[in-house]
Amino acid sequence: HTAKVYVPPALHPSEISDLLDRNQIQLAPEVAALYGQIEEANVIWELASSDAHTISQFRDDPWIKTQYLDDGYDWGVVHEMLSGGLGVQPLSYILNDEWIRSQGYYYSFKNMGRDHKEVVVLDLHWTLTALLRVENGVVLDEVWLHNSDAHSLTPMNMGVAEYMKSCFELKGMYHWQEALLWGKKAEAHQMIKRFLGRIFPNTTPQL
Hints:
11 helices; alpha+beta; 23% strand; 3-stranded antiparallel beta sheet; 5-stranded mixed beta sheet
């Protein structure tokens, strides 16, 4: 597979403090600990399209053919399902109103009749966005999952540290959050159970 990784070091504490003061917001200690280590984290991995042997192992897999390809799905869609990543955004973005208004969750929240200021972005992940709840001017250590296609908002019952740990264990594979939340009812559950260990040997997904 191929991967792109961009994880710059954290801003200086004084820069973080100034940014929070300007936006009149504070971070729960657990959230502050994350941004005290990194400014952002953008990781994208996928099966190498140029590797015909690797691609054929998955495109010709009987289960994938039965569940998807024979049912009319394009291989490009399945290829995306067999990819993953992490998209922790910089504080300077997630607190910036112009940036927020360019994100899918902003419009989805409007359709849901909710105020986008209830949350800030933690992780952008295709149609899913992991959000942190904001209460009384504090970004809480409380992760919620938003699906912009389904206009749904679901508590993940975990904080930032557990979210990052789960993402690492499941390699950020497509819709891993829903697989954790809903188990076998989630479409991603079987994909992850069947193929994550083949993509990353010695990985056993705990679902």
